[in-house]
Design brief:
By secondary structure, the protein is α/β, with parallel strands linked by helices. About 20% of the residues lie in helices and about 30% in strands. It has one domain: Dihydrofolate Reductase, subunit A, CATH 3.40.430. It contains five helices and nine strands, in the order E-E-H-H-E-H-E-H-E-H-E-E-E-E. It has a seven-stranded mixed β-sheet with strand order 4-3-5-1-6-9-8. Strand 3, helix 3 and strand 4 form a beta-alpha-beta unit. The protein is globular and about 50 Å long. The chain starts with 6 loop residues before the first strand and ends with a strand.
């Protein structure tokens, strides 16, 4: 098998306890966080790779069906005109072949199950993981079973709006 020519990038947020959604798929805790009743001084945001900057670095988006359906329920489509591939449970290998055939350079990988599948295939090259200051206690985890350890190198950490912390990791291959 020839080396992969495209880069897999994950840009995703979780609760502090590692969940991407509540058990029923609800993400309102992330998209509409409650107002801070304590009125602490705001954290000072720094320059980070925000969503628009991340989108400028990718050629297309690949997401699972459940994530796609959740995004369709949002009030506004967040992905602009980027091509989107919706992955079914049977089309993982086909996705990699399409990226090679169409000479796609960089893929935004989204959705818990898709991220997990790409990690198992060693198809993730970097992860930008944002933690929201919220503990859910239960929900849909971002990371699931992996056959082996996946080492990462921390490249940057930034504080962004609403007390969120964003960490950028390079996957060590």
């Amino acid at each position: 098998m020839s080396p992969r020519t495209w880069t897999g990038r994950v840009f995703i947020a979780t609760s502090l306890d590692g969940f991407i959604a509540r058990p029923d798929g609800d993400i309102s805790w992330l998209t509409n966080p409650p107002a801070d009743p304590v009125h602490l001084p705001p954290t000072l945001p720094r320059t980070v790779k925000v969503f628009d900057q991340h989108m400028a670095r990718v050629d297309c988006i690949l997401m699972g069906r459940k994530t796609y359906e959740k995004v369709l329920s949002l009030p506004q489509w967040p992905y602009g005109t980027k091509p989107i591939f919706v992955l079914s449970s049977t089309s993982l290998e086909e996705a990699g072949e399409v990226f090679e055939r169409d000479r796609i350079g960089s893929v935004y990988v989204d959705g818990g199950e898709v991220v997990q599948a790409f990690l198992r295939k060693s198809w993730v090259d970097e992860i930008i993981l944002t933690h929201a200051p919220m503990l859910l206690g239960q929900g849909i985890p971002l990371f699931g079973f992996l056959e082996k350890d996946i080492r990462m190198s921390l490249r940057a950490v930034d504080v962004i709006e609403d007390g969120m912390v964003s960490a950028e990791y390079q996957v060590i291959k």
